[in-house]
Structures are given as structure tokens and as C-alpha cells.
Amino acid sequence: MSTGRDTTAPPSARSTEPQPLSEDVPPRGEERTDPTMSDPAKSPERTLLPTASGAETLAAVRGMLRGHRLLAFGAVGVLVAGTGIGLLTAPLLGHIVDLVVEDRGTGSLHLPMVLLVVVALVRGGATALGSSLVARLGETVLAALRERFIERALRLPLERVEEAGSGDLVSRVTGDVSTIAKSVRQALPEFARSTLTILLTLVGLAVLDWRFLLAALLAMPVQWLSVRWYLRRAAPVYAAHRVATGALQHQLLDSMGGVRTVRAFRLNEAHTELVARRSQSAVDLAVRGTRVVTGFFSRLNLAEFIGLSAVLVTGFWLVDRETVSIGTATAAALYFHSLFNPINAALFLIDDAQSAGASLARLVGVSSLAGESGPEDAPRPVDGTVEVSGLGYSYVSGHPVLEGVDLKVAGGERIALVGASGAGKTTLAKLIAGVHQPSAGTIRLGGTGTGELGPAGIRQAVTLISQEVHVFAGPLAEDLRLARPGATEEELRAALTTVDALDWVSALPEGLDTVVGEGGHRLTVTQAQHLALARLVLADPPIAILDEATADAGSAGARVLEAAALRALEGRTGLLVAHRLPQAATADRVVVLDRGRVVETGTHEQLVAAGGRYAALWAAWSDSRKGGEGSGVVPEQAGASEPGVAKSASGSATSTPGTAKSGSESVASEPSAAKSAAKSVASEPGAAKSGEERTDSVLEAAKSATRSAASEPEAAKSPSASAPSDPGAAEREPVAAED
């Protein structure tokens, strides 16, 4: 008995993480973890975003349906009418059989034949209309769910998004939404139609003779057991497959996003193996799902055989006893046979329902998360002062990244943060910007504590510009208006003039109306940073943080951007995570961090005269400018074109492959809001080595150069040993190795 179903199709993008399958797959509702570091031996567990329970998912769907009751009742009513009319087909055919058996003549067949045509036309029209209404209802609910998901995802604390990793969020907003959309457009109308057909057909069997209904129900136990067998095995597989797909997407983002670093450190084979391993996990789960589906439908075929045999035997017995006519028995057999397609379709759609259910639970899980909390009417900071007191922070418990940091910044003052990789520069910047919440200590902006300001108040007070700037697709003017929605064209031009970007904007094909971003005019790295600085001018916050904002530009581009940044910072407090010493030298004050503590602070001239770490760094950089790479001292490392690496004063090269690459290799930089966790230290095993920040590499070389002075015992290590010299330094910043 062929039912026309496809039992070979694997579960379509069901669920994710490569874990042991079957009973040890975490139940829905638990947060899963995912290793995402490039070195599997050192992979920490990544806490994924939560998944809603079945009850929570149903409650969310009911809530979204409340506003569309009329549409829902209309769709069900039309489908019931169409299905009920279609049930007249079997009795009409049975009547024709009786007419033939009784030899009534061909004239008696005209009316039943006309009625069959009318029934077919009415049923077809009602079914089409009902299916259209169901699809409209599904699309409306899906749109509401998608909007709710996006709205809540954009309000999630950035720290929570970084913990989960970009792959998890991306897989939900792409794969999960696509799976649900496919089910809504294809599976939902078919499932509704099939369910109504089954129920009304069973009623029709009872109307013919209640014993036909009992015979048909003999197939129910086998079908019920088959469904239970399937659900027990399919749900964990589909849930795990969705997680595995997310892990695969995260690894692909990691490997492709850091492709230059992967090549520089010759990690091609390692990353290929990681992608292959995650891909194989997803494939294994898909194959396992296919086996479950195949076993499910073989059991359904057995149920069909049992039910049809029972109906035929019952019909023979009733006809033999002259309880029913041959036509009635024929109608009963046709009724049961007509159940094959709707029953199989409904049960087959359980496969899609399982996949859609797993995806829906993942979307509802994010939609149910609490957004950033804070006072609704937060006070606006009165000025741009920043006061940090006793600040501490840990990414991993027991491994503090910042300890006892005290810092006061006057309004309008420009501060440069300098330090080795892992010193805590970017973490400090993130804490001030409100990306993370401090583990200890307090932060006051404009005299008001960040707890009183709340996330919205902090965003009004602080604007963070990172190394990676996202250019939104659309007209360039609209991209600029993100910072000030009501800005006039004159205000946009004034902001561009401030950052010296008006000339190249005017040279674009359509000026401010030029479409940029995905599918439009591609901006260079320098132009994208100009755009970010112009947004800063338009937003006009009292405090601005530039986290290696010029790192991706070449030497010339970096100098242009530094000049533009100085103009953008006029009249506001500025904190610069510096990667070029000339940039730090122009600041009003330089703050040197080491191992999460402030070790030096003062003007450039004061620190150079003090003869400490900053002085050694400046001396090494100055010597490199005089002697060049061959002199055995540190080259400038101003941009991607610089081929050199830091060398020690003794002339022994301590080069690390790829350290001469531009700051675009640095997974360290603060991601933009739309790409908050796309690159973590987890993806770059060499992130703790020199070369991630130009200043960091130079500083470590300067420490080596001052070894004979012995004034800094901690600095008397080669650059290659600088990262491991702090036990746990690489491990304690799993999200922000950029420090």
C-alpha cells in the first residue's frame, strides 16, 4: 500500500550540538553548552541561550493567537465545511454500486454522477479557501514571533550574547526562522486539513454502521504505539541536530572571520578538522533522524494493513448477514482507504512538527529572556567625568582580569590606555561603556553611578567605537541618522566635515543618497571608520571610547583616522585603547595597565621622564624609527604593510608568524553591537601572543630590552613568553583576549 510519502528525507535542519545522542541529550528548557575554541583540548564550555519548555512554547503561541481569533475560527469553519462535503463521495459511490447490483439501468446513474462532480468542485473550493486562511493565520503569527524575537534579541545584555557566541544567535534567527516558516507555509494547512478529514471520516464510518468504526479503530493501537516510539526517539535527535547546526555555524564564522590569523599561524589544517568534526556531528544526527523516520513509516504500513483487513472482513460479515448492502460495505472500505493519506500526512507532518517545535522553542526561549533592566527615567550625566573605584572583573571565576582599578578622568580629558595583551584595557573600556557589569567596585559617569543610570542612561552618556564598524545596508544618510534620527542634511554634512569625510562622501555616485553596505557601494576600512566617527559627532555623547578604532587601517589611513578622531573628541571626554604610540603620546594623559592593575599614569612627558615601562616602550619605538627593522629594535608596526616583528635588544628575533598583519587580525577588538560575539579568543589559539595589538608587541619587546637593568623583574622575559608569564592570563579572558 503505497502512500506516496518520502521516507528518505533527513530531518531538515532540526537541532544542534555534537553531544552523545539519545537519552543523554539535555531535555528542552535546559541551557546547553558548546565548545568553541580552536584548540579542543582547551575549549571552555559556552553557555548557549535558553530553550523554552513545551508548556512555555504553547503559552506563547496561545498568546499570539489571541488577537486573531476571528481569522482562526473562519479558517477552521471553512475547512470543516469543505471536509464534510467531501465525505459525501464515499456514500455516493456506494449508492452507485447498489444501483449496478440491482440492475436499475444506466439512467439511474446520472444523478449520482452529477452529485459527485458538484461535491468535488465544492470540496476543492472550500479546501483551497480554508488552506489559504490557515496559511494567512500562520504567516501572521510567524511575523509577530519574528518581530518579538528580533526586538528581544536586540535588547539582550551584550555580555549574555557574548557568552552564547554569535553562532547560536545566528542559527536561531536564520535556520530556526526558516524551519518554522516552511512549516507554516506547507505543513500547517495540510495538517489542519488532514486532522479534520480523519475526525469527520470516523464519524462517517459510525453513520454507516458502528461496527465499521470499531473495525477501523483496530489500527489505532498500532498507530499510537508507532507515534510514541517515534516521538521518544525523534525529539532528542532533532533538538541535538539544531544545536549541532548552531555549533557548525559558529565554527564557520570563527574560522572565516579570522582567516588571516588562521593562515598566519598555519592553523589551516586544525580549523579544517574542527569544521569537519562539527559537520560530521550534524551529518550523523541527520542520518540518525532518517533511520527513525524510516522505522516510523514501516510501522504505519502495518497499521494500515490491519485496519483495512478488519473493515473488509466486517463488511463481508455484515453483507452475508444482510445487515448492510454491498454498496454500504463498499462505502465503508472507501472511507477507510481515504484515511490512508490524511493519517499518513498528519503523522508524517509530526516529523516537520518536531523540527518546527524545536525551532519554535529556541525562538520563544530568547523571546522570553528579560532584556536589559534599569530605571525608565534615568538621570542624564551632568558632565563627562568618569570615576572608577576599586573596579574588579572576571570572565572566569577565580581568574580576575581587573583588580582594584582606580581611575579618575576629568570632563573633556583624553586618556590613552596602554598595556600588554591581557592587561585589561578593552575590558576596562567595556565596563565603562556598560557592556559588562563589574564584579567589584563602582563606576560613576558624570557623578552618577552606572547602577542608577541603567543601560539606557549609560548609552546616552557613552558611545563606544570599536575596530570593527558595521555599515548598515541602505542610503549613507540613513546610516548616519542612526545616531540622530531627526538630523537634517546640513547637520549630516557638518558632522562629515568635522571628521574630514565630506570630500569622499561627495565623490560617491549619489553623495549622501548612495546605497552602502550589503548589496551597495562597498566602503573601505578607513571610510567605515569615518562613518562611525561622524555618528559619534551626531550622537554628541559626553564620553566617547575608541577601542583600537584605527587598527584596521594602514599606516597612512591610521594617521588620517587619528586626526579625525581628535576632531570628533573635541568637547567631550575620550578614552582611547591605543595601539600606536604616537596616538598615545597626543593624549592628555597615558594610563599603563599590567595584569589588570594600573601601574603608571601621567602625561607622555612625565612617563618618559620617569623611566618606567612606558619610557622603555617609547625608547624602543624611537630606536626602531631611527634604525629600522635591521637594527635589532622594535619597528613601528603602524599598519598591515609593516613586515617586521618585535626583536629583542640583543638582536635575537622573537618573531611570531603573522604578527606584522594589521589589526584586522585582532579578535581582540570590541565587536560592534550587531556582531557582539562573532570573534572570541576561543577562535584564535594565538590570541594571547604578541602581534594582536601593536603596542602590546612593542611593550613586550621593550621589557626584554630592559632585562639588564633588572628594574622590572616581570618584564625580563622574551615576547614569546610574555603571555604565559601570567598563569591563566589567556584563560581568564575567554571573551576579550583583545586586552
From TrEMBL:
Residues 1-51, 625-739 are annotated as: Disordered. It is a multi-pass membrane protein. Gene3D superfamilies: ABC transporter type 1, transmembrane domain (1.20.1560.10), P-loop containing nucleotide triphosphate hydrolases (3.40.50.300). It is found in: Cell membrane. GO terms for molecular function: ABC-type oligopeptide transporter activity; ATP binding; ATP hydrolysis activity. Residues 73-355 form the ABC transmembrane type-1 domain. Residues 386-620 form the ABC transporter domain. The chain crosses the membrane at residues 70-93, 113-138, 191-208. The keyword NAD does not apply. Residues 1-19 have a biased composition (Polar residues). CDD domains: ABC_6TM_exporters (cd07346). It comes from the Bacteria. InterPro entries: AAA+_ATPase (IPR003593), ABC1_TM_dom (IPR011527), ABC1_TM_sf (IPR036640), ABC_transporter-like_ATP-bd (IPR003439), P-loop_NTPase (IPR027417), Type_1_exporter (IPR039421). Residues 25-34, 729-739 have a biased composition (Basic and acidic residues). SUPFAM superfamilies: ABC transporter transmembrane region, P-loop containing nucleoside triphosphate hydrolases. GO terms for cellular component: plasma membrane. Keywords: ATP-binding, Cell inner membrane, Cell membrane, Membrane, Nucleotide-binding, Transmembrane, Transmembrane helix, Transport. Residues 646-685, 708-728 have a biased composition (Low complexity). SMART domains: AAA (SM00382). PANTHER family: ATP-BINDING CASSETTE SUB-FAMILY B MEMBER 10, MITOCHONDRIAL (PTHR43394:SF1), ATP-DEPENDENT PERMEASE MDL1, MITOCHONDRIAL (PTHR43394). This is Putative ABC transporter transmembrane. It comes from Streptomyces albus (strain ATCC 21838 / DSM 41398 / FERM P-419 / JCM 4703 / NBRC 107858).
